[in-house]
Amino acid sequence: MTAKIIDGKKIAQEVRNEIKEKIKSIGKTPGLAFILVGDNPASQVYVKGKDKACKEVGIYSEVYNLKEETTEEELLELIDRLNQESKINGMIVQLPLPKHINQHLVIDAILPEKDADGFTPVNIGEMFLGRNRIVPATPKGIIKLIESTGIEIEGKHAVIVGRSNIVGKPTATLLLQKNATVTICHSKTENLTEITKQADILVVAVGKPKFLKKNMVKRGAIVIDVGINRLENKLVGDVDFDEVKEVAGYITPVPGGVGPMTIAMLLENTLTCMELQKRLLQPE
Asked: What b/e string do you get for 36-55 counting C-beta neighbours within 10 Å, with b at 16 or more?
């Protein structure tokens, strides 16, 4: 048995086509601003890809490339200006930030209704309460990829390896909303293989190349690989794809799995931001 490939690129393109049509139908151009501090090569590639996707679907975009030595105060001033800019509906501060800048302070400064990443405490809190407004893009994309298999999430045992605020914790919350039984594993988890082998749905986000091996996977499981690592001049995930595809039922490739979905969900979130702002300006 060889796993069916979950084609994130194809699913993301379908979402982008829908967004493009929606923008045409509403007759208003949403605006998204990207803020990049420093010259992290991976961050530059990510921002370039997101900016290109905006242009493809008809979202107006602005990219702010700030120097590594940009002060926290200067960054906060820019965020404040964008918060007040009517043509900008959403903004993304590309992480990680230089060490001299407090990431939490920066995220907190973004207006919740302009938080295209879904990282502000208000949006995270709303999601935790089951009142989803703007949901973090990668977890939102992960759910769509799982649903694309046609397998019902309700009642399944989902295991998440990794407990980050960006992927692990919000993905667990969204899976709980879908009535999965959720286990979160991390670096202090004992008997990890015993736990991952119980998973009907396995989400791996640890930042270690080819970490998840064949012997850690239940036959027929859905395996979502969130990792992206450079190994011997090629990109690989946190899952040993060649091994695991022999036992999994469904698996995402790297690249071409979660990555394209994250960008598609950011575009979708920008539309949600615009709708939220319209409601705030025109209360019912």
From this structure: bbbebeebeebbeebbebbe
Rounded to whole angstroms, what are the CA distances from 249 to 88, 160, 183, 217, 230? 42, 17, 20, 10, 26
Active-site pick, 114, 115, 117, 140: 117
| CATH numbers and ranges of domains, the chain | 27-111 (3.40.50.10860), 136-259 (3.40.50.720)
Candidates 94, 114, 144, 169; catalytic one? 94
- Residue 75 to residue 171: CA distance in whole angstroms: 29
Cα gap 54→68, rounded to integer Å: 25
**117 is an active site residue:** yes
Query: What are the structure tokens assigned to 127, written together?
Result: 């999601």
For the stretch 227-280, pLDDT in tens is 999 888 899 999 999 999 999 999 999 999 999 999 999 999 999 999 999 888
DSSP 65: E
Spot the catalytic one: 24, 39, 44, 50: 50
The DSSP letter of residue 64 is: E
Whole-Å CA distances, 87 to 11, 34, 282? 29, 14, 17
151-195 pLDDT per residue, tens? 999 999 999 999 999 999 999 999 999 999 999 999 999 999 999
Is 39 in the active site? Answer: no
Q: Measured in Å, how far apart are the chain's first and last C-alpha atoms?
A: 55
